[in-house]
Structure formats: structure tokens, C-alpha cells
Amino acid sequence: MALPNKCRDLSLQPLNRRALTVQRVPSSYPCPVEDSNTNCTLFAVTDASWEALASYLGMSISRFGQSPVIPTLMLYQVIPSIALNSSQLLDGVSYSTALQNEYLTVLKSPTDPSGTMYVKPTGAPKGLLIERDISAALGKLHIVRGPLVPASLVPLLTGGTPSELPIYGLGSPQH
User: Fold this and answer.
1) N or C: which terminal CB in the chain sees fewer CB atoms within 10 Å?
2) By C-alpha distance, which of 66, 103, 8, 16 is closest to 57?
3) From CA 42, how far away is CA 18, in angstroms rounded?
4) Domain of life here (predicted)?
5) Span 47-89, pLDDT tens digits
6) Does residue 143 lie within any of the structural domains?
């Protein structure tokens, strides 16, 4: 998977039509794509998931991408300082993200022989890992269906209502 040379000042565009990059990534972004010495784990949410969330919030994807919450939201998708393969992500373990005091919990289906995996934001619906273990200059990249938004950021995205976001499955959002 080809990643952009820089992660700063990117417009709202897909990475090979699968994962979204967002403009205004802060200079303190903990896992810069251009630094080949950086090791981190990045959960990249699909374009369709961001578009569905933007639509649910009554915004265009362009307007959503301009939200001042987006740089903070991007930090939430990074487990800094360690590049983890899906086999190293442990079921039920909450991993500290680059967003201070926020965690992502990995959930594995014990009854599914194909090894279905989810990432669950704090107090929010889980996202399905649809592609795993992509090697990148930054470490390991996993593609997620469903927006990863911790409960603490929901009011900032929604203006206070609704208090929760919908669950995203294979199709459209569900409540």
C-alpha cells in the first residue's frame, strides 16, 4: 500500500481508495508517515465510514474534514511507539492511544474460525478490522470499517446531540 510522503497539510483524500487522510494533522502528530524510524500502530478508518458519519451528522464530507475536532480524532487512531500485527493485538486488552487518557480495546471473536477482530472506542460502537497487517513506513496499518470516535469527542462532533453515534455494519448505520 502506497502511503503519502507527508502526513501534514493533506487534503481529505483516500489512501488507495481505502483509508482516509485528513488535512491539518498537527505537527505533534505522534506517528509521522515520513519518518521511517517511527514505530506505531495506526487504525485507518475507511472513506465510506467517514462519509456515513458525516452524512449522519448532516454534513458534507468536505465540511466534516474541516472540523476542528479532526486532528484530535486522528490522534485517537494511533497506538504510539509500537507496531503491532493483528496476531499481537490481544483480545480484551485496552491500548493507550496517542490521544491522552483515551483507549482502544481489541475484541476477537472466539467462535469465528476466520479470526474476526474489532476495535472498540471508549464508550462507543466498535469498528471491524477489514484489512490487517499492512506494512508501512510508520509501522503497522489496519483498515477499519466504522468510525473510531471515543465518547469524549462525540459532543464536540455533534454539538452536544446525539449523545452517541450509530453502529456501522456492512451497510448503513444502525442504532
Assistant:
1) C
2) 66
3) 14
4) Eukaryota
5) 888 888 888 888 898 898 888 888 888 889 999 889 999 999 9
6) yes
> Is the residue at 140 inside a domain?
yes
Residue 93 has pLDDT above 90, yes or no: yes
Q: Give the integer Cα–Cα distance in Å for 127 and 154.
A: 16
Q: Is residue 4 in some structural domain?
A: no
Q: What is the pLDDT of residues 6-51, one digit of tens each?
A: 332 222 233 333 333 333 333 444 454 444 456 889 999 988 888 8
d(CA 105, CA 134): 20
Residue 166 has what pLDDT?
61
pTM: 0.74
CATH of the domain at 59: 2.30.180.10
Cβ contact 45:129 at 8 Å: no
d(CA 97, CA 91): 16
